[in-house]
Design goal:
Blueprint (H helix, E strand, L loop, with lengths): L2 H34 L4 H5 L4 E8 L5 H15 L5 E8 L9 E7 L2 H14 L9 E2 L2 E3 L5
Antiparallel strand pairs: 1-3, 1-4, 1-5, 2-3
């Protein structure tokens, strides 16, 4: 390997190390600022709440029907114990696998499960044909 190529490789490695060090310094600095506050962000954001993230595969030509179905589910669930909030998101990318994504906050997994089971029995609105839900419950671990 000739000297200019070696030198270029060394400069790239040093640049990567400098970038990594800079990012770590920024993270440490942010963490130290949080600790100097009365309560850190982690302490103030800790809760028992869970997050439902439910991406939907929407059949072609069934977007509006799927939104109407989601709204019926929302209207039912928001009256149930443990419900906190929900928002429906629509992809801005044409042809996205998950055209709609629901993000909801519940007091606990139990509250969500009980409300969902009740809705399945009592909603009275049939789901959109071909609509595929992919729900999962999450907790916030970092902000």
């Amino acid at each position: 390997m000739d000297t200019p190529k070696k030198l270029k490789g060394i400069v790239l490695k040093v640049s990567r190390i400098a970038l990594t060090a800079s990012l770590l310094t920024s993270i440490i600095s942010c963490n130290n600022e949080e600790k100097s506050n009365n309560k850190s962000n982690m302490e103030t954001s800790k809760s028992e709440h869970i997050i439902l993230i439910n991406p939907f595969e929407v059949p072609k030509g069934k977007l509006e029907e799927s939104i109407v179905y989601w709204e019926a589910c929302r209207d039912f669930l928001k009256k149930e114990p443990g419900y906190i909030s929900t928002k429906l998101h629509k992809s801005i990318k044409d042809g996205a696998k998950f055209e709609l994504i629901n993000v909801a906050v519940w007091e606990s997994p139990k509250a969500f499960t009980e409300a969902s089971q009740k809705m399945a029995k009592e909603l009275g609105v049939p789901p959109t044909e071909g609509l595929k839900a992919n729900p999962s419950l999450y907790t916030v671990i970092s902000e």
